[in-house]
Amino acid sequence: MNAPAAFRRQLLGAIPRLRRYARALTLDEAAADDLSQQALERALLHWRQFDPEREMGVWLLSIAHNAHLDTVRRNARITVTDPEELLRVQDERDADPGTDVGLRMDLMAALTRLSAEQREPLLLVCVEQLSYSEVAEVLRIPIGTVMSRVCRGRAALRRYLEGGAQQRPESGSPLKRVV
Amino acid sequence: MTSGMTGDMTMGTERPDDELLSAFVDGELDDAERERVDAWLREHPEDQRRVQTWAADRAALESLFGGTLQEDAPEALRAAVWRGAPGAGPPRWAMAAAAVGLLVAGALFGGAGVWQWQDQRLLAQETRLRTELAAGTAQGWVERAALAHSIYVAEPRHAVEVKAQEEHLSRWLTRRIDIPVKLFDLQPFGFELVGGRLLPDGPGKSAQLMYQDAQQRRVTVYLRKPELGTDAAFRFEKQGALGMFYWIEEGAGYALVGELPKATLLTLAQAIYLQHPKVLPAAPASPSTPAAPASRGRHPGPRLPSPFPRRLWAQKAGRLQLHTPRVLPIMRSASPMKRCWRCCTSSSPA
Q1: A109 in contact with B at a CB cutoff of 8 Å?
Q2: Per-residue pLDDT, B174
Q3: Is B63 at the interface with chain A, CB within 8 A?
Q4: A1-80 maps to which CATH number?
Q5: The domain containing residue B54 runs over which residues?
Q6: B255 pLDDT higher than 60
Q7: Is position B3 within any domain?
C-alpha cells in the first residue's frame, strides 16, 4: 500500500526542517535539496516504519543522516569543497544585511573543517535544537557519545573560529576536504 | 546526564569537566548538576566566559541556517512527497495548499478525497498541528485560512466542531473571536452551512465556517480580527486549484477559500460581503430571512439584501472584473443560482 495522505501531509510539513538540516550538512543548496529529496523518497518507501507517536521531524532527520552517510561514502574520494564556492554560496544566501557576515563566513568555514562525527551531533543540537537523547536516536549512538562529541565539536569549532587556520580536524575522517 | 559527574563528595569544589559544561549550555543537566555548574561558574569567570562563548556559538549556528525555514519548499520536493499518492496524481487540495507556502507550520494539509487514515493517532497529530498554528508559525492569516481549509475540508468525520443546527454556534464563535460572527446564508447558491470551528490563530483565535453544496463541494469562510496594518484591499488569490477571496471589513478579516471557479467564489464572497453585520445593521439575525430581497425581475433568485453599498462593492471588486460577461456562464454551470447579482440588482436603486 502506498503511503497514506495523512503521512504525506506530515512529510510536507517537515520539509523546511529537513532542508535546513540538509543545508547544514552539505553547506550547499543544490546538494541539500538532493539530499532532502532522497530522504523524502526513503521516508515514503518506508512509511510503515514511522511511529505516528514519534515526531516526524526527528524521524526524517535520521533518514537524512543515513542518506547523507551513503552519499558521502559513495563520493568519499571525490568530495571536495572549494572555499571560493563556499563564499559564493554564502554571499548568495546572505540576504539579511543585519547579520554578521564575517561571523557567518567564518562559521561556515569552521564547520567544513569539523569531522563528520563531530559536526552532525553539534548541528543536531545547535541548529535543530534536538535533545541529546533525540540526537542519539537519529545517529544511533549512545547518549554519552553524543555528549562527548558535542563537546569536542564545540571546542574544535571555537578553535577554528579563533583563527587556528593551520589546524587540522582533530579526529575522524574529514567529511569534506578543503582544497 | 551523569557521565560528566565526578566526585560527588566534593560537589561544588571540583571543576566540572568540559562535557558537563557543554551539556550545561545545551540545557541537558538535571537540577543538581546544573546547580553545581552554576556555582562553579560564579566562582570561575574564565570558565564562565568559555561557556558563554559556546552558548553564543550555538545561537550563531542556529541563526546561520535559520533562514532556510522561511523559504518555500521547492516544487520538486513537494512533488516528491505526493509521488505515487493514491488517486491520479497529487491530490488537488494538497497541491493547492502546498503552493500557498505553508512551511513553518509543520502542517498536515491537503488530501481531499484520499483521506483514508482516520484514527485516534491522526487526531493526535492534528492536535499537534493546531498547537503549531497557535504558535503563529504559519505565515499570515490568509495562509492560515488556506491551511485550515485544507485540513478540515478533507475531514469527513470531524469537519466541524459545532454543527450548523446548533443554535449557539454564532454566539459561541462571536464570543470567542471577539468579532461578530454571522452564519452567512449561502443557500441561494446551493451551499448549506455544515458548521463551524474555532481555530488557534497566532496570538488570537479565528473562526471557520464550512459550507457544502449538493455535490459535496466545500468552501470555508475564515474570520478573524486582522492585525494592525493588514492590507484591507479586496483580493483574489489562486493557489493551484484553491481559490481565495479575502478582504477586511470593519475590523473583521474574511477569507473565503474553496476549490471552485473564481466566478462562483466571487458570487459567494459577494453574498458574504453583503451580509456583513455592520454593512447591514438592519439585517435580521437569521440570514435566511433577508430584510428586502431584491427579487424584482424575472427570476426568483438569490435573496440579496437591498439596498446595499453597490458602489462600494463595485469599487472594491473592480479589480476582479466583476462585470465581465464571462462570469455569468460559469456561474450558471457551477451553482444552482438562477440569476446573477449583476442583472438582478441593476434595476434596484443604488
Answers
A1: no
A2: 79
A3: yes
A4: 1.10.1740
A5: 8-67
A6: yes
A7: no
